[in-house]
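REQUEST ID: PR-0412
SUBMITTED BY: lab tech R.K.
PRIORITY: routine
TASK: structure prediction, single protein chain
INPUT:
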Amino acid sequence: MPSEDAHVFRLPRALRLENGAVLPHVEVSYHTYGRLNATRDNVVWVCHALTANSDVLDWWPGLVGAGCHFDPQDWFIVCANVLGSCYGTTGPLTPDPATGKAPFQHFPLVTIRDMVAVHEALREHLALGRVHTLLGGSLGGQQAVEWAVQRPELFDNLVLLATSTRHSAWGIAFNEAQRLAIFADATYHEATPDGGAAGLRAARAVALLSYRSHSAYGQTQTDADDEKLDDFLASSYQRYQGDKLVARFDAYSYVALSRAMDTHHVGRGRGGVQAALGRIQARTLVLGITSDVLFPPSEQQLLARYIRGAMYAEMDSQYGHDGFLIETAQITHFLERFYVQTYVH
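STATUS: complete
OUTPUT:
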């Protein structure tokens, strides 16, 4: 396969969603980097977070890429854009082949398990019998742990960053606050590609309060001018980040993916969280972040408690939840320890 390339895969059959709805046509956008070795045991599968895409070299520099821990010279790296996104995989803005019309706000509810079903179909298409390492943070971690529960025999190693066994009431509340901002934008209900842009801008401002920390804002967004009465750095930062997301994402996908995140619960229908995590066979590293208020360390500690033999570590970071994207030097350090411990013992 090409050393670094984007691909599209069409599922060979309709996808029945967890809630009973059916998507008759599903396409998946994905990237691969590097090459399979002769023994086909160098596969690294990355699951991405809420507004990311399949080009993991673009959004996880320092961890994935030339000279990084996951270097395409050594690994065959796969990352697939999730169901419901706006980066090439079937989502709310994808036209129905039969009608030529996109569903917009009527796109059906998809769950983390539906996302994993699409990943599994792609894995089969790529004929990857085993995956050396499956990893993801946040929404990506939710996919990874769900997949490891569903197909425990496939994965040798599992790396979970800033994620959980189920999405918390706190996390659902944050997501609902963001969706309320989008729904309050009248253009969202007009079902156009740019619909809900003002609401999405406000939603992103809400989300940032859960992604970063009091300390991070204090250090980077405090005004030097003590006499200032308006247009504070923190205010302009929120507007700037909202504008950045609107330029690259859409409100309908944001609603679809935040709803999917809310459905995450590995224990649903499996006798509870402990029983579900007990199915995992992969050697597992769980990483928490000291300042994460969206997925606090207690949620990662719960994962490590019930996954047999899991290694748990915490990253000391001022960046809050976003630390899983930023603290690549710390992540690399813990990965090196994890792999040494795994293969020495």
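NOTES: Residues 98 and 282 are 42 Å apart (CA to CA).
REVIEWED BY: pending
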